[in-house]
Amino acid sequence: MEQQGNIFCNVCGKKIKIEQGILREDVLKVEKEWGYFSKKDTTRHVFHICEECYDALIQTFAIPVTVTDENEIV
Ligand SMILES: [Zn+2]
């Protein structure tokens, strides 16, 4: 959901803080163009999930997310 440059968490509806066009909070953006083999027939889906909701979401995963430390990649 994007309105007038605002970004909302699609899970909890919280407004993500933006100052002068810069995101002040990190947020997960999911963008997916579904193909012919899906039941969604080439529609484009976009949603945002705030960090709190992301943490709650990944708790429900059967297999945990893969975490790598970006600082260790040179
Ligand atoms: Zn949220």
Structure description:
This is Ribosomal-protein-alanine N-acetyltransferase. This protein is mainly beta. The protein has one domain. Helix content is 12%, strand content 34%. The protein has one helix and seven strands. It has a three-stranded antiparallel sheet with strand order 1-2-3, with no helix packed on it. A two-stranded antiparallel ribbon has the order 4-5. A two-stranded antiparallel ribbon has the order 6-7. It is extended, with a radius of gyration of 15 Å. The structure holds zinc ion.
Give me some keywords for this one:
12% helix, binds zinc ion, 74 residues, mainly beta, three-stranded antiparallel β-sheet, two-stranded antiparallel ribbon, 34% strand, single chain
